[in-house]
Predict the 3D structure of the following.
Amino acid sequence: MQAQLKTRPEPRSRSQPGGTRERRQAVSVREVSRTYASRDRAGASVQALDGVSLHAAEHEVLAVVGPSGCGKTTLLELICGLQAPDSGSIECAPAALMPQRDLLMPWLSALDNAALALRIAHVRRADARARARELFAELGLAGWEEARPHELSGGMRQRVAFVRTLLAGKDILCLDEPFGALDAITRADMHAWLSDALAQEPRTVVLVTHDVEEAIVLADRVAIMAPRPGRVLSELDVSLPRPRGRTDPRVVALRERALGALGSPHERLAR
Ligand SMILES: Nc1ncnc2c1ncn2[C@@H]1O[C@H](COP(=O)(O)OP(=O)(O)OP(=O)(O)O)[C@@H](O)[C@H]1O
Ligand SMILES: [Mg+2]
């Protein structure tokens, strides 16, 4: 079956004349800093982000990679308006967040969890469930519609949360490690599905991931962050045709560049 996000009536073309630079900015993060007042083990407050600037053009897939604790989740929560920056500014249309933890409601079935965003938008239960059911079939969840979250594997729960985020119907998707709990085969299937779906129905995506290869397979551009306090070290343009294979030498070369920008394991652990 052809992958589709199925949240808009009129699919639009992904290709735009003039490329990324002439497209409207959908997400603008300018010189944003964020310090948490709560204390670390040494008794200091924690500066999560230090002067971060990032931009995503309309219908661009921007991946953000960086080591654990560099402020990626904080950045997504700021973009989605769940937190406010201490300084700097953020401009962004309403965005749907897929949180790092799936946050499924334990008392609802998988299908009702997935349909939740539509129910909140006052879509009738039967219609909301029907739309969620279509995506369940596409994402390998058919037969699990009435299971409760505790009956699902971690990877299944993650896909239910992914369906819920897609069905929120927002122009901007903020995905926080969306495929981290999936096995390698299912993850590759999800990459292919998402690439196809975005070709059918483009969205602006801010994709946070630990997986540099995933970033290069899926994104138009990759922002590489430094460890705490989080800063953008560099950005990589990934102007390769889709679909992209992991073993494509161009993908491998970009992955090496990104890993080089992140530094060696010794350097990272010493920071
Ligand atoms: N609510 C909070 N209160 C206090 N400190 C926080 C809070 N949320 C995050 N932090 C701290 O801010 C820093 C950045 O956290 P954040 O969760 O944004 O990192 P991350 O890059 O998403 O990490 P990971 O890859 O492990 O998910 C960390 O040092 C973390 O301990
Ligand atoms: Mg995180």
The chain has two domains: 22-94+170-270, 104-169. Residues 184-200 form the longest helix (17 residues). Residues 27 and 162 are 21 Å apart (CA to CA). Residues 104-169 form one domain.
